[in-house]
């Protein structure tokens, strides 16, 4: 009982804090860069991170097994992984654009998890015999970490595409519903332009800052996706070895396995398309954006169908 | 030579010292690995330096990649003219291989040409990418279309008179074998093609890269250094200091006179080769599994036994039954453990293996995720059932009542049995009796002869129950264990491939960084490049170069005297 209340409190702390953080982030992007606000948004992220970690740990203790047995827990773990991704560049002391991507992703994931759609899964449940294995920790956590990393990387590529084809989107800018999109991805450039346009000693490169930004996004996207690809490989192979131990065959063409393999193939195509200098940039970013959709199909779409050996994560939408 | 001060003006402060324009194509001496790099731009920029190699002329902008056969150790540099016959120069390679000139045998020459052409066609990168796309698309299709159903199912789902999406009839599904997509010839053929592309690309591109990557070279030209992706110059510095700082940062540093070469992360160049080799391993192991394994599935009530060879079926053409198939498996006991809530927590089977002489060779209790391995055979716990209920009626018995599985929607099972209270004869087809239902081996629910619920009993409690004047005592619940047996010769190979793939994928994340430096009077010109982590490299370089001490005062003259400038 104690753990249940603890979990309840922690999850609500983290959800409200991340909402505040996201609001602060929006304000800094849209209105002004306020130093004090940015610091407090960082502190807010740290608070959320610790409360999510506390939530997962208490769930682990109270249920006796690693908190990754159904869709709800895996979504919370996914948002935790996105936090980790947000923190890594800070540790390395390199300036990053990742926070623009990771913070909204985290809140959306967590919001979906805590929303009314999945309330029956909030209770921690017992583990069925097939999941009682050490491999559970290794396989599922690797897969979720890789999903988080690949999602981030493919969103960076999508941002690159949008920035590069900004001209084509100009006629959208009048419409209200694209305001959010525009402010997230365009206003950074506008800020840069506004602040430094006075400094004319830089070479007269017409789209210098846009070029710089796209180069950085490209480079970051490549590194993040490479890391995610490594994790995805390890996750899939762990799953295959586990399947061999549990069911006797390491590959069953289960829908979830197949879609994980498709995700792996798409990102392998991305990595290969970067070896050719002609295709670097736009084409590989296109592949990575397709990868974004594929990941969601793999993670969520299959669970909606609820078939196959991976049915632990399935849920049915409530019929209204 | 411009003064150091003007250098600072022309090349602004560190954070923006990275090149603004895309880096120019480096001379052909640098190894450019791409399965199909555009040849036109390479031709536009002639490879400098005499005595090195010919570059493909600019006119051959659409020329296919040419393959090199390394029959003997190629010389480091030679200016042999292009020879006909077996060999051709490959772009980016540092050596011209000696041809096999003297091939008197025309058939052998033809074979070599055909092989070369196939290899160059197969190792084409766009082909490989389109193969991967095609495989991904087919896999996605395989998850959407229901697999493994009878043809009549597809006749119903994709009728000819009302096609799905306007054109997909059952002919579209059944002819290419899409109802068993993952073993259909189309899919397997694509996989084989991808494997061939992998092998061709490994042989033609990556193995040569190993040779080239190991060679490092000093430059004596400050111009060439400044053209690198990252370039900078440090006035009043010494190349020895730079070398020491680079060594501290984990680089391997080599100096020769005034020039310096350092690299880090060379494993990141080799690792993709390892990745491809590991994938080939896995494919080979999977092929072996598909052709040489045995699989079997059996339900054995507690107390009975079976011979392994009786239940195993070969899966492929290369399956050879080993001697261990003569072993007999005896199920000593099958039981389940439960949570407090009543849900099943685990299934256990206590198995004993006996060989032909009747000697017990192994005994183990297996559970899900913990199989039994013996002589290459693995026995997994996969299923369970209810075999019989042992009851005593009014002290008589015990009777074994067979339990039948009742149909339920979903995963849960339900078993039932019936104990008649009257004699059944032809005059009275409706015999009354006691019904017993069970969801698991733990509790039995009893109903009287009118179908009314009477009570629940656990076999372990040994408590009797009174129904319709009869005293029923549930003695025991005898379960059936569902076992899956498998022998698979490909598994060790596949596991080795898995391990190698995991390791090499991790290593290929490393970025291969190279730094060249030249002591130019009292200035050190530094240039570097890396293949993956470009942003991090420039930041790291900035940090390192900041650490190089600036030499002031009297030391200047010494350095100017002792160094020979080579511009």
In short:
Chain A contains ten helices and no strands. With 320 residues, chain A is an all-alpha fold. In chain A, helix 2 (35-63) crosses helix 3, helix 3 (71-91) crosses helix 5 (135-164) and helix 5 (135-164) packs across helix 10.
* Anisotropy-based shape of chain A: flat
Structure summary, number of beta strands of chain A: 0
Question: What is the residue-mean pLDDT of chain A, rounded to a whole number?
Answer: 75
| Total number of helices of chain A | 10
Class of secondary structure makeup of chain A = mainly alpha
Q: What oligomeric arrangement do these chains adopt?
A: heterodimer
Helices and strands, with pairings:
The complex is a heterodimer of chains A (320) and B (567).
Chain A: H1 2-30, H2 35-63, H3 71-91, H4 98-114, H5 135-164, H6 179-185, H7 187-196, H8 208-247, H9 255-273, H10 282-305
Chain B: H1 4-10, H2 39-44, H3 106-122, H4 125-144, H5 151-157, H6 170-174, H7 185-214, H8 222-226, E1 230-234, H9 239-248, E2 252-256, E3 259-264, H10 267-292, E4 294-301, E5 305-307, H11 308-311, E6 312-314, E7 328-338, E8 344-354, E9 360-367, E10 372-374, E11 377-393, E12 396-402, E13 404-406, E14 414-420, E15 433-438, E16 444-447, E17 453-457, E18 464-467, E19 470-487, H12 491-507, E20 513-520, E21 523-530, H13 534-547, H14 555-562
Antiparallel strand pairs in B: 1-21, 2-3, 3-20, 4-6, 4-19, 5-7, 7-8, 8-9, 10-11, 11-12, 11-19, 13-14, 14-15, 15-16, 16-17, 18-19, 20-21
Helix pairs in contact in B: 4-7, 7-10, 10-12
Could you explain how this protein is built, in words?
The complex is a heterodimer of chains A (320) and B (567). Helices cover 71% and strands 0% of the residues of chain A. Chain A has helices at 2-30, 35-63, 71-91, 98-114, 135-164, 179-185, 187-196, 208-247, 255-273, 282-305. Chain A has 320 residues and is mainly α. Chain A is built from ten helices and no strands. The model of chain A is unreliable at 171-204 and 316-320 (pLDDT under 50). Chain A is flat. Chain A has two domains: 1-121, Four Helix Bundle (Hemerythrin (Met), subunit A) (Up-down Bundle), CATH 1.20.120; 130-181 and 209-313, no CATH class. Chain B has 567 residues and is of the alpha+beta class. Among the domains of chain B are: 115-202; 223-265 and 511-552, TATA-Binding Protein (2-Layer Sandwich), CATH 3.30.310; 321-421 and 433-481, no CATH class. In chain B, the strands form four sheets. In chain B, strands 4, 6, 10, 11, 12, 18 and 19 form a seven-stranded antiparallel sheet that branches. A five-stranded antiparallel sheet of chain B has the order 1-21-20-3-2. In chain B, helix 4 packs antiparallel against helix 7. The termini of chain B are close together. Chain A: Residues 68-310 form the Cytochrome c assembly protein domain. Chain A: Required during biogenesis of c-type cytochromes (cytochrome c6 and cytochrome f) at the step of heme attachment. Chain A: It is a multi-pass membrane protein. Chain A: Keywords: Cytochrome c-type biogenesis, Membrane, Plastid, Thylakoid, Transmembrane, Transmembrane helix. Chain A: Belongs to the CcmF/CycK/Ccl1/NrfE/CcsA family.
């Amino acid at each position: 009982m104690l753990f249940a209340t603890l979990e309840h409190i922690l999850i609500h702390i983290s959800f409200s804090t991340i909402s505040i953080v996201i609001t602060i982030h929006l304000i800094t992007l849209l209105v002004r860069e306020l130093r004090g606000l940015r610091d407090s948004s960082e502190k807010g992220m740290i608070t959320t991170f610790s409360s999510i970690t506390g939530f997962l740990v208490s769930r682990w203790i109270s249920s006796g097994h690693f908190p990754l047995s159904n869709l709800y827990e895996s979504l919370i773990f996914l948002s935790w992984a996105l936090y980790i991704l947000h923190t890594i560049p800070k540790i390395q002391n390199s300036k990053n654009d990742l926070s623009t991507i990771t913070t909204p992703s985290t809140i959306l994931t967590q919001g979906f998890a805590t929303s009314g759609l999945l309330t029956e899964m909030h209770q921690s449940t017992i583990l069925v015999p097939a999941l009682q294995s050490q491999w559970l920790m290794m396989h599922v956590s690797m897969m979720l970490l890789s999903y988080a990393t690949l999602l981030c990387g493919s969103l960076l590529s999508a941002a690159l595409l949008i920035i590069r084809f900004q001209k084509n989107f100009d006629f959208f800018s009048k419409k209200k519903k694209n305001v959010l999109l525009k402010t997230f991805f365009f206003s950074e450039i506008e800020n840069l332009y506004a602040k430094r346009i006075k400094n004319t000693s830089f070479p007269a490169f017409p789209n210098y800052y846009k070029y710089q930004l796209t180069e950085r996004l490209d480079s970051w996207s490549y590194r993040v996706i490479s890391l995610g690809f490594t994790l995805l490989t390890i996750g899939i192979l762990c799953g295959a070895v586990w399947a061999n131990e549990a069911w006797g065959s390491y590959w069953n063409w289960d829908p979830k396995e197949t879609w994980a393999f498709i995700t792996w193939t798409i990102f392998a195509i991305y990595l290969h398309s970067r070896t050719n200098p002609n295709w670097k940039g736009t084409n590989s970013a296109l592949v990575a954006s397709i990868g974004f959709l594929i990941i969601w199909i793999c993670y969520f779409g299959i669970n909606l169908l609820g078939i196959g050996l991976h049915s632990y994560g399935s849920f049915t939408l409530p019929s209204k | 030579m411009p003064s150091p001060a003007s250098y600072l003006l022309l090349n602004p402060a560190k954070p923006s010292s990275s090149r603004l324009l895309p880096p120019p194509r480096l001379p052909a001496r640098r190894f450019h690995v791409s399965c199909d790099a555009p040849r036109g731009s390479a031709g536009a920029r002639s490879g400098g330096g005499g005595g090195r190699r010919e570059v493909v002329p600019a006119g051959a902008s659409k020329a296919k990649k040419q393959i090199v056969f390394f029959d003997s150790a190629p010389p480091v540099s030679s200016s042999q003219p292009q020879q006909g016959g077996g060999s051709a120069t490959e772009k980016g390679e540092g050596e011209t291989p000696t041809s096999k000139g003297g091939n008197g045998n025309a058939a052998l020459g033809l074979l070599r040409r055909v092989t070369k052409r196939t290899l160059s066609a197969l190792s084409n990168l766009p082909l490989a990418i389109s193969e991967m796309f095609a495989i991904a698309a087919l896999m996605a299709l395989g998850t959407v279309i229901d697999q493994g159903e009878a043809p009549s199912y597809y006749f119903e789902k994709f009728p000819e008179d009302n096609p799905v999406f306007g054109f997909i009839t059952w002919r579209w599904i059944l002819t290419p074998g899409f109802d068993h997509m993952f073993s259909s010839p189309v899919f397997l053929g694509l996989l084989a093609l991808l494997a061939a592309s992998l092998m061709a690309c490994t042989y033609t591109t990556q193995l040569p890269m190993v040779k080239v990557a190991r060679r490092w070279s000093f430059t004596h030209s400050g111009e060439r250094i400044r053209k690198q992706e990252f370039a900078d110059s440090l006035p009043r510095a010494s190349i020895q200091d730079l070398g020491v700082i680079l060594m501290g940062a984990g680089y391997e540093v080599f100096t020769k006179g005034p020039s310096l070469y350092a690299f880090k992360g060379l494993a990141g160049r080799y690792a993709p080769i390892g990745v491809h080799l590991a994938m080939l391993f896995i494919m080979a192991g999977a092929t072996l599994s598909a052709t040489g394994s045995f699989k079997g599935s059996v339900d054995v009530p507690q107390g009975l036994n079976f011979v392994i060879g009786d239940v195993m079926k070969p899966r492929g053409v290369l399956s050879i039954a080993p001697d261990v198939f003569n072993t007999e498996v005896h199920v000593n006991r099958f039981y389940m453990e439960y949570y407090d809530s009543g849900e099943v927590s685990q299934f256990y089977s206590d198995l004993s293996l006996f060989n032909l002489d009747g000697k017990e060779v192994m005994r183990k209790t297996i559970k899900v995720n913990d199989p039994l391995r013996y002589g290459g055979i693995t026995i997994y716990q996969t299923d369970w059932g209810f075999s019989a209920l042992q009851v005593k009626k009014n002290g008589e018995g015990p009777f074994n009542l067979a339990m039948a599985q009742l149909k339920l929607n979903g995963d849960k099972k339900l078993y039932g049995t019936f104990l008649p209270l009257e004699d059944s004869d032809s005059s009275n087809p409706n015999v009354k009796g006691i019904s017993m239902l069970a969801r698991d081996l733990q509790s039995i629910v009893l109903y009287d002869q009118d179908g009314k619920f009477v009570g629940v009993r656990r076999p372990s409690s040994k408590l009797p129950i009174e129904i319709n004047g009869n005293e029923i005592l549930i003695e025991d619940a005898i379960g059936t264990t569902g076992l899956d047996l498998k022998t698979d010769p490909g598994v060790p190979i596949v596991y080795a491939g898995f391990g190698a793939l995991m390791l090499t994928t991790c290593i290929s994340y490393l970025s291969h960084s190279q730094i060249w430096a030249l002591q130019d009077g009292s200035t050190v010109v530094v240039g570097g490049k890396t293949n993956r982590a470009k942003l991090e490299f420039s930041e790291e370089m900035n940090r390192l170069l900041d650490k190089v001490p600036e030499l002031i005062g009297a030391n200047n003259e010494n350095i100017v005297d002792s160094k020979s400038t080579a511009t």
